[in-house]
């Protein structure tokens, strides 16, 4: 699960890096435009301002360019005696040197900038310089100077109510408490810094990321890694928004230490490797020193003591050359532990003694004393503010008591006046509301009437549309039958007749009889089709008058199927009429006969030779359900869904290639509806079909 969590997190970082690269491209276009504009303007003071802007923007991604433009700005500012522009250029040079790890040069240019700002009495820019200088001194043994500068910056920031600067100063104070191993106060000031970062409208992602990293690392080093998870989750979200590789390297080392505390060694190594790649690009001693320290800690935890000592020695060498002394006591203690584990006790003792070397130790007692005064001053401010508020509250209470009686009298008068106005206003609005309600009620009634009329019109349009579709389908079906289904048999009949007339003597008697038989069958089929077509046409024009009466179902069925029993006999199909001879129905006899005839004819058509057709019925309340069942070829669902619909084209040949149009079943549906009945089918392919017809029973039944 940890591995999966890390993979997802790394993938999200990659995606966000792509987004940040797009933002970087847009920023690069703006920088190009600013460069071109600066080169074209004649005002030297405006040139200095624009060069400083370029130095500022390049400070986030290209330190060499930042140094170049700040140097040009300083040079031009000196030539025109533009002191503000000169000091700002020195400030930007100092900050670029910080990210290059050149702390001596950084302090040099901060000193130059503060001299000018002091002369100009520009406290806002002095505040900015004090913050930067405090940060630089925090890496040296001169922690007292770092603290003094932080406290100076704090006073100015409090006067200006500068939340962004307050966040930075409280962060620096938190770092000092961390070095004094005061976990609670360090965490308090780191959290205070984060709160001010979130309050400031000008806070960038880098300041918030620094706070989360400091809080998370503090918890890790105090054995509270589980509590640090949320802090590192927030840091991961902010990483892709940062353009500074210098900061990224610091954050990667912090993340590596977090994973190491969770015993996620692979993840820890991954972020150490990322730092190593950035360290090669940046070549900053401060980062290299921390990187070697982190590697030494990692290999010490893995019990690879030779490697651990190798990286610790590299850390010591780089730190002493670059005057980065603040973490060397901790590094020498780690070296002493590694040597002692290898039983190199003499070397371990020497390393242990080095960890207490005065040149590596800052004056913790004096720093603690200064911080004690700072805390006392902060408490005094809080106490004074509390006393002031208490006195103000007492004065307010006394004044309130004096005016209570007058207020009550005026309040009573005012209350009566307000109540009178309220009553009059309420009556007025009630009258208006009643009038408005009546108007709304009338409008609502009108809208409802219009809505009802509209719904009726829509329903009428839908009915007419449906009727029009049906008429179009009827017309298309009618012409299709005339053009194809009716024309084709006549063509066959005419062809057979012509052939018989022209070649009469070429055939023997048996062949002539065969031709005549074919003509007879084709004529009979065509006549049945024509008869159905005429019935259908009459039905469409309401020429067929339905005259219902009581009649015996068995007799109607026999009359309907008798003409087709010969066809069934030719195909050797057994027909069983199992209808109750006493069952009566209340129907129009001619139209019901057409229904029975068509369904029985279809059963013969789609039943194989030697098959069976069974006709039966049963009573269901006030209906009789007739079933005409065959064991023929059956139907699939698609064919069944298309039956009884004029708009669907269903053409299927019978088992002996008998032709069909589907018109008969459409006619059956119409006639059944006219007789207040219902028709449906159940079928499976290769297993036969069952047509069901429900009809009203006789009232006397």
Automatic annotation (TrEMBL):
It is an enzyme of class 2 (transferase). Residues 481-699 form the Histidine kinase domain. The chain crosses the membrane at residues 409-431. Residues 433-471 form a coiled coil. GO terms for biological process: osmosensory signaling via phosphorelay pathway. Keywords: ATP-binding, Coiled coil, Kinase, Membrane, Nucleotide-binding, Phosphoprotein, Repeat, TPR repeat, Transferase, Transmembrane, Transmembrane helix, Two-component regulatory system. InterPro entries: BphY/WalK/GraS-like (IPR050351), HATPase_C_sf (IPR036890), HATPase_dom (IPR003594), His_kinase_dom (IPR005467), HisK_dim/P_dom (IPR003661), HisK_dim/P_sf (IPR036097), Sig_transdc_His_kin-like_C (IPR004358), TPR-like_helical_dom_sf (IPR011990). It comes from Plebeiibacterium sediminum. It catalyses: ATP + protein L-histidine = ADP + protein N-phospho-L-histidine. TPR repeats lie at residues 87-120, 167-200, 209-242, 289-322. Signal peptide: none annotated. The keyword Membrane applies. Its EC number is 2.7.13.3. GO terms for molecular function: ATP binding; phosphorelay response regulator activity; phosphorelay sensor kinase activity; protein kinase activator activity. This is histidine kinase.
């Amino acid at each position: 699960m940890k591995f999966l969590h890390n993979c997802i997190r790394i993938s999200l970082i990659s995606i966000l890096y792509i987004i940040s690269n797009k933002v970087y491209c847009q920023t690069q276009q703006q920088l190009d435009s600013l460069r071109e504009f600066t080169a074209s303007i004649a005002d030297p003071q405006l040139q200095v301002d624009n060069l400083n802007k370029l130095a500022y923007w390049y400070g986030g991604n290209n330190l060499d360019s930042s140094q170049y433009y700040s140097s040009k700005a300083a040079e031009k500012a000196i030539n025109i005696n533009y002191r503000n522009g000169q000091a700002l250029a020195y400030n930007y040079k100092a900050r670029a040197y910080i990210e290059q790890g050149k702390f001596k040069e950084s302090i040099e240019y901060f000193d130059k900038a503060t001299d000018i700002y002091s002369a100009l009495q520009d406290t806002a820019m002095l505040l900015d310089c004090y913050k930067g200088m405090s940060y630089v001194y925090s890496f040296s043994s001169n922690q007292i100077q770092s603290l003094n500068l932080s406290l100076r910056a704090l006073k100015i920031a409090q006067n200006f109510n500068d939340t962004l600067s307050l966040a930075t100063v409280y962060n620096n104070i938190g770092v000092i408490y961390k070095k004094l191993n005061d976990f609670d106060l360090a965490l308090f000031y780191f959290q205070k810094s984060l709160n001010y970062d979130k309050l400031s409208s000008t806070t960038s992602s880098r300041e918030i990321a620094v706070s989360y990293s400091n809080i998370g690392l503090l918890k890790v080093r105090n054995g509270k890694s589980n509590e640090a998870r949320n802090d590192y989750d927030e840091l991961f979200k902010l990483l892709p928004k940062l353009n500074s590789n210098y900061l990224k390297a610091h954050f990667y080392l912090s993340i590596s230490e977090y994973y190491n505390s969770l015993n996620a060694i692979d993840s820890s190594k991954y972020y150490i490797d990322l730092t190593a790649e950035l360290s090669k690009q940046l070549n900053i001693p401060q980062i290299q020193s921390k990187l070697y320290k982190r590697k030494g800690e990692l290999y010490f935890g893995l019990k690879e003591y030779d490697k651990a000592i190798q990286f610790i020695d590299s850390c010591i060498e780089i730190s002493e050359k670059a005057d980065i002394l603040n973490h060397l006591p901790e590094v020498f203690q780690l070296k002493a532990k590694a040597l002692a584990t290898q039983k190199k006790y003499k070397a371990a003792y020497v390393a242990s003694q080095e960890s207490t070397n005065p040149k590596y130790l800052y004056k913790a007692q004096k720093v603690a004393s200064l911080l004690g005064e700072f805390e006392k001053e902060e408490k005094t401010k809080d106490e004074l503010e509390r006393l002031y508020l208490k006195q103000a509250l007492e004065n307010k209470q006394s004044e309130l008591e004096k005016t209570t009686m007058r207020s009550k009298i005026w309040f009573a008068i005012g209350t009566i006046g307000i109540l009178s106005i309220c009553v009059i206003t309420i009556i007025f609005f009630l009258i208006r509301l009643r009038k408005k309600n009546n108007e709304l009620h009338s409008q609502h009634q009108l809208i409802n009437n219009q809505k009802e009329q509209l719904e009726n019109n829509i329903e009428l349009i839908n009915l007419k549309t449906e009727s029009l579709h049906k008429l179009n389908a009827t017309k298309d079906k009618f012409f299709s039958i005339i053009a194809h289904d009716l024309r084709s048999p006549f063509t066959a009949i005419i062809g057979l007749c012509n052939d018989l007339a022209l070649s009469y003597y070429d055939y023997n008697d048996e062949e002539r009889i065969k031709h005549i038989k074919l003509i007879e069958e084709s004529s009979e089929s065509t006549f049945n089709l024509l008869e159905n077509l005429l019935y259908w046409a009459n039905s469409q024009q309401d020429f067929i008058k339905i005259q219902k009466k009581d009649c015996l179902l068995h007799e109607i069925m026999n009359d309907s199927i008798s003409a087709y029993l010969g066809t069934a006999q030719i195909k050797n199909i057994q027909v069983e009429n199992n209808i109750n001879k006493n069952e009566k129905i209340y129907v129009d006899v001619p139209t019901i006969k057409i229904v029975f005839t068509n369904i029985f004819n279809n059963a013969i058509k789609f039943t194989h030779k030697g098959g069976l057709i069974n006709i039966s019925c049963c009573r269901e309340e006030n209906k009789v359900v007739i079933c005409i069942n065959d064991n023929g070829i059956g139907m699939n669902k698609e064919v069944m869904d298309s039956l009884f619909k004029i708009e669907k084209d269903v053409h299927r040949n019978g088992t002996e290639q008998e032709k069909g149009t589907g018109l008969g079943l459409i006619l059956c549906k119409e006639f059944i509806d006219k007789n207040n009945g219902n028709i449906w089918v159940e079928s499976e392919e290769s297993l036969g079909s069952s047509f069901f017809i429900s009809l009203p029973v006789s009232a006397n039944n």
